[in-house]
Amino acid sequence: MKLKKLSKDIDFMDKVEELSGESLNSCIQCGTCSAGCPFVEDMEILPERVFKYITLGNIDKVLENNTMWICAACYTCSVRCPRDIDIAKIMEAVRQVILRANIDMVDVDEVENMEELPQLAVVGCFRKETG
Amino acid sequence: MTPDKDEDNKEEMVEIFVMGKRYEVPKGLTIMTALEYAGYKFTRGCGCRGGFCGACSTVYRTEDEYKLKMDLACQTAVEDGMFLVQLPFMPAVREAYDIEEVDPEEHDNVLLDYYPEVARCVSCNTCTKACPQDIEVMDYVQAALRGDIERTAELSFDCIQCGLCSIRCPADIKHYHMAQMARRIHAKYNQPESDELAKRVEEIEKGEYDEEMEKLVNMEKEKLKKRYDERDIKEEG
Amino acid sequence: MEKGYLYYPGCTLKTKASDYEDSAMKVMEKLGEPLVEMDDWYCCGAVQSLSEDDIMNQIAPIRTMCCAQEQGEDTVVTLCDMCYNVLRQANDRMKDKEDDLETMNDFLTEDPDYKGNVEVYHLFHILENMKDEIEDAVEHTLDDLVVAPYYGCMLLRPDNVAVDETEDPEIMEDLLELLGLKVLENPKRTECCGSYHTVNRSDIVEKRVEDIVSHAVNEGAEAIVLSCPLCQFNLDFNQRATEFDVPVFYITELMALAFGLDIEMKNHKIDPRSLLKEKGVLE
């Protein structure tokens, strides 16, 4: 419900560009980011295609897919982009627009094997996936 | 705002606003007694009146300041231009646990296991600023994150469970419940047992103090008062 | 301080990664530059917040910088790759953006203003300038052991915080060769281990671990060496989902063994002791 409301209420592209400080239209769709991404197999939509959907205004497609939640912010895409776009920042902005609408992707109480996990993992996960 | 003291030197009054409604109350009162002066009767959010039970949490601001402040109603003097609201209840959830079953030896970080939201702490210090007991709340949350139960217990010792720390935490941490767990675990599992205490409990159970207790319970009030006043206390120093 | 460096541990080094702290403290003591823990420090947040407008998630790293400043120090050294990355990025951001620093200082009313004069380093920055001392401190070269160095992400990316070449680093290889180890070319040494996905998408981490470990083993690796507690946890703990059984060391553990020092090694999931005994490193 909340996700649907999100796509109608705000200018998604504007918000993503504001939060990331990057220009989505600079992307030339070369696919270098996807080629280097270690997690691309688990992503429903390739990173550069997510940006294209945003610029075309197809926000529902973006919100319903899992790409930004599979991203682990490893920065491989950012250091390799031939247009010097900080792709990790854009992915973060897409996450933030959703999290800031008070939508959490992980429930802190539902984490299994909390006892085994190092703080780095738990703190990092909560920072990236809760608002 | 405040009426000047007139020639008859009447008591100085200050103006306060209780949930938006204006009252004039004498200057020297605490927030709690000022509210009672204004005609309110506390049925919740009032307890020991001595700054120890944590029942009378209050959020307020003073007229020209933008900051929201928090304190205990029974310990804070009224100021001219105070805007007040009482918080008679804190809805922070307290995790259920059996103290017999939370041996810290079996967990790397038992506090984090029961209160995982502690990992969301951003060190903003809102909690410390709210604490009426001047506890270093942020520091004990950080200690808990690190797995240092002893430090969490020691730093939170003066906590009176008023809940003001948790009310504005951006990470929704339940500081005071988590710290209480730390103190209980620390006392039960880390602290050495007191032989004297165990011995005294045994003496009591054997009935060694029954006669003395009976005497005191049945003593006349005046005699009891006299006995209390004349009790043997060694002066310090 | 006269000798040694001001040391920022980070939360994990106090619990799950205590082996790293234990071995690093002993190694640095032996090298004559002890690590001295900061009087006060705060959880860095593990991952850098990348939003332009986010000041709140920079509070914790900058508070830590303030603590170092108030201790009269201008250098902080950290062992943890992720802590290094967060502290360094936050610190650089405050130095580059005056407005952000001003907002931060306005908010931190209870602390003195942060002037931006503290530098953040990773242990590798220190070790790469101590190669002679390291060579001198080696008592038993670990000749028989074949290792694959693993960098992960946070030491090398983004470019401005990298401790070495982003795509072709050599710092770990150089240090390991000083210990007499046979160091392999590890093809997946700069690819992400899965990071915080270990919390609720361990399937993703298991895929990454399979990929990384299988490539290392194919090259002949008997052990993997790294410097990040989260990478160590992922590669060590999640190897159970693969067919492999390769011990994962912190670089300072191997250094300590080469220096003849006694170390704890108590948090390893895959016990390294049998391999070390086989190689004559341990009795």
Describe the structure.
- The complex is a heterotrimer of chains A (131), B (237) and C (283).
- By secondary structure, chain A is mainly α.
- Chain A has a single domain (2-129), classed as Orthogonal Bundle (Fumarate Reductase Iron-sulfur Protein, Chain B, domain 2), CATH 1.10.1060.
- Helices cover 54% and strands 0% of the residues of chain A.
- Chain A has helices at 2-9, 12-20, 32-36, 47-56, 59-64, 67-70, 76-80, 87-99, 119-129.
- Chain A is globular and about 45 Å long.
- Chain B folds into 2 domains: 13-86, Ubiquitin-like (UB roll) (Roll); 99-190, Fumarate Reductase Iron-sulfur Protein, Chain B, domain 2 (Orthogonal Bundle), CATH 1.10.1060.10.
- With 237 residues, chain B is of the alpha+beta class.
- In chain B, helix 4 packs antiparallel against helix 5 and helix 5 packs across helix 7.
- Chain C is of the alpha/beta class and 283 residues long.
- Chain C folds into 2 domains: 5-124, Glutathione S-transferase Yfyf (Class Pi), Chain A, domain 2 (Up-down Bundle), CATH 1.20.1050.140; 134-278, Rossmann fold (3-Layer(aba) Sandwich), CATH 3.40.50.
- Chain C is 39% helix and 10% strand.
- In chain C, the strands form 2 sheets. Chain C has a 4-stranded parallel beta sheet.
- In chain C, helix 7 (171-178) links the parallel strand 5 and strand 6.
- In chain C, helix 1 crosses helix 10 and helix 3 crosses helix 4.
- Chain C is globular, with a radius of gyration of 19 Å.
- The mean pLDDT of chain C is 94.
- Chain A binds chain B through residues 108-109, 111, 114-115, 119, 122-123, 126-127, 130, and chain B through 107-109, 112-113, 116-117, 119-120, 145-146.
